[in-house]
Specification:
The chain is α+β, with helices and mostly antiparallel strands and 132 residues long. It has a single domain (3-12, 25-131), classed as 2-Layer Sandwich (TATA-Binding Protein). It is built from 3 helices and 8 strands, in the order ββαββββαββα. The strands form 2 sheets. A 6-stranded antiparallel β-sheet has the order 3-4-6-1-7-8.
Length: 132
């Protein structure tokens, strides 16, 4: 179970995902090797020994980077687990990559100001499920 963040080539001129035009088709994010290099500038300890499925382990959180098996990457799904610093890291990563993302828990664009609350709601849900 993870807090999932989908990075894609999303339009920068809309405020909400409902404003994305029906015919919009995201362009590829780019060469997977180049994307990994950029990710490692922010997360130098990330392990991309499997370039399709990288992982960053910190004392506070773990993020898996699902990049797919193709040389040209269409999207990156972040599977986030752990503690509060993860939300801030995701925001920093997105800014570094110059990309937008969808916070699947919120059903909306990732927003730095709302990310901590979204992640906290996900953590509460996770804890409730684990208790069962």
């Amino acid at each position: 179970m993870s807090w999932d963040i989908l990075i894609q080539d999303l339009p920068g001129d809309v405020a909400s995902i409902v404003e994305i035009p029906d015919g919009f088709r995201p362009q590829p994010l780019g060469d997977r090797r180049e994307l990994i290099t950029k990710i490692m500038e922010v997360a130098p300890t990330a392990d991309f020994s499997d370039p399709a499925w990288g992982q960053l382990e910190t004392p506070d959180f773990v993020i898996e980077f699902n990049m797919g098996g193709e040389a040209i990457t269409d999207a990156i799904m972040l599977h986030v687990r752990g503690g509060d610093p993860a939300a801030e890291f995701v925001g920093s990563l997105l800014h570094h990559l110059g990309r937008r993302a969808v916070d699947s828990s919120a059903g909306e664009f990732f927003d730095d100001a709302a990310a901590a609350d979204s992640f906290a709601r996900w953590q509460a849900y996770r804890d409730k499920v684990i208790e069962r």
